[in-house]
Amino acid sequence: MRFHHVALSMALASTGALLAATSDALNAHEKGVLKLASRQLVVADSARVVGEKFARRSTVVLFLSGVRGRIRLQEVHADTGGAFAVMLHVPSDIAPGGYRLIAIASDGDEVASLDVAVVSARPAVSTASHHEGEMPSAVGLALPRARSPWVTGGVVLAIALSLIGGAWLLRRPGTEAGGSC
Length: 181
Fold this sequence. Notes:
The chain is of the alpha+beta class. It has a domain at 33-119: Sandwich (Immunoglobulin-like), CATH 2.60.40. The chain contains two helices and eight strands; from the N terminus they run αββββββββα. It has helices at residues 2-26, 149-170; strands at residues 33-36, 40-42, 46-52, 59-66, 69-77, 84-89, 97-105, 110-119. The protein has a five-stranded mixed β-sheet with strand order 2-8-7-4-5, with no helix packed on it. β7 and β8 (110-119) form a beta hairpin. The longest helix has 25 residues, at 2-26. The N and C termini lie close together (7 Å). The relative contact order is 0.14.
């Protein structure tokens, strides 16, 4: 029994030392922040992008990532404070829809991202808070979901096995008759 405690202590200590030694390698890049005045980008227009909290004097490439893959926009250089401000040109051949603006470091790691919508023309500003005939309601959404008894039974079985496995791992070892620790 004593050997079990020594082995467990050694395993925990070596895991802690390994994590402490590799923490710098795991955090090779600082996570940057991308800011836009509006999360709607207009096709064939420009928008000001501000980046903060990037690695000092680093170079990142801005991409729009969507259903059809990544579209390279431009390369930017952060200053000594890890910030940049650039005018981002949205290509004229990009399809309207939902995209993610991504900043990729020189080694290929994603260091910042921001969800945006690309629209074909700047939307008109409406004074009304809703469109005519589209009033909010308390009616729930009809969302499709699995109703199979096999799926439900499988989920219940997985939960039960997880609880039994957790209880088995947390059990206290019994004392041996005639032995002492």
